[in-house]
Amino acid sequence: MSERDPSATGVGERYGQSSFTQNLLDRRDLASFANRFLRWLSVQQPAIEDPELVQIRMPSGGSSSELFLIDIESKASEGTFPSSLVVRLEPQYHVYPIVDLGQQFRCADAANRMSDAPVPAHYWYESDRSHLGAPFVVCEARDGVAVDSVTDGWFFEASPEQRESLWWSSVEALADLHRLGIAEAKLEDAVLAVDGSTPLDRYLRYWRLYADFVSTGSEFPVIEEALSYLSSSRPLETLPEAFVWGDARLGNILYADGQPNALVDFEFAHVGLREFDVAFFSFMDRVIAEYFNEVPRLEGLPGHDETLDYYESVAGCRIRDRHYFTVMASAYNTLAVTRVLQGRAAQGFVPEEFVRTHGPMNALADLLGIARPAA
């Protein structure tokens, strides 16, 4: 599994990513952590004989959970045990208003076992925080490279034709993920943990909860305007439920041989509406280029409507109310980034005013056709 910076590619210092990652590294004794994990693994899987550490490292990115990439050697009495693992701890600082690591594990595990999407195997969920200091999940580490920059690196250097091919294959992988049978996977209860009789009802209540989580008053008028729009302009029809990845974007896909090899980061996975997921995938690429990095999107990457049209053709279903769900996707991204930056401002990694004026906040304002917040 490659190291990646999911925060937006090439602007790590401006958004405090470099300082945040270094702070995590400074606080962690990796050798001690690895020993504690191996002790847990020996008890959890007695068939694994004498697991030994080969290497442990922390990826260079991540906005909430702590990730550890651990390579081990062992003698498994039954079958072959994977030698490369990902351990993800429940975050100490919650980016989301509701954190349910068990549900995240159930969703990712079902996606791996019961869909054609390239989701890594998820092996264990441990709720007892005494082992590693927090609940955690353990999953397979897959090979691949992430789109971790739009201003340099392999994706920047690829031809427009290569980027277009990679984009379409990613849309196809997303469609494969959405075909997961909710009832077959026994995920009927994996909805957003708020009241509501329909997925849209739950989304609107969840965004309100999220806004209250990041705000103590009216300091984010762009977010409030977005929630007002989503409430007043909601589609009248009842849309069918689907499995939702929750953070669908190029930066959360590992590629091998020009094809998606691993969809990662299921922290917001739930049963909801595919329209939200597809709109997020497409619009986020524009946000990362134009609003995080302040550069044009790279040549060869298809446009928003073209992407949604292609999704319809491969998934066999319509993506309705496109502007509405693009605003919803942008509002979600703005809420999450605002919460991340609040934590980083408190640690002195970014200026306080940047919490109100960051790229996704400006993207949401532009999408709504209102003034950007003043610096």
Topology, element by element:
Layout: H1 17-27, H2 30-44, E1 48-57, E2 66-76, E3 84-89, H3 101-114, E4 122-126, E5 136-140, E6 145-146, H4 153-157, H5 160-178, H6 199-214, H7 221-232, E7 242-244, E8 253-256, E9 259-263, E10 270-272, H8 274-292, H9 304-315, H10 322-346, H11 354-357, H12 359-368
Antiparallel strand pairs: 1-2, 2-3, 3-5, 4-5, 6-8, 7-10, 8-9
Average residue-wise pLDDT: 92
Based on Cα principal axes, name the global outline.
globular
CATH class of the largest domain: Alpha Beta
CATH superfamily of the largest domain: Aminoglycoside phosphotransferase (APH), C-terminal lobe
Strand content: 5-15%
Secondary-structure content class: alpha+beta
Helix content: 40-55%
Task: Explain what this protein looks like in three dimensions.
- By secondary structure, the chain is α+β, with helices and mostly antiparallel strands.
- Helices cover 43% and strands 14% of the residues.
- The protein is built from twelve helices and ten strands.
- The protein has helices at residues 17-27, 30-44, 101-114, 153-157, 160-178, 199-214, 221-232, 274-292, 304-315, 322-346, 354-357, 359-368, and strands at residues 48-57, 66-76, 84-89, 122-126, 136-140, 145-146, 242-244, 253-256, 259-263, 270-272.
- The strands form three sheets. A five-stranded antiparallel β-sheet has the order 1-2-3-5-4, sandwiched between helices.
- It is globular, with a radius of gyration of 20 Å.
- Residues 1-10 have low confidence and may be disordered.
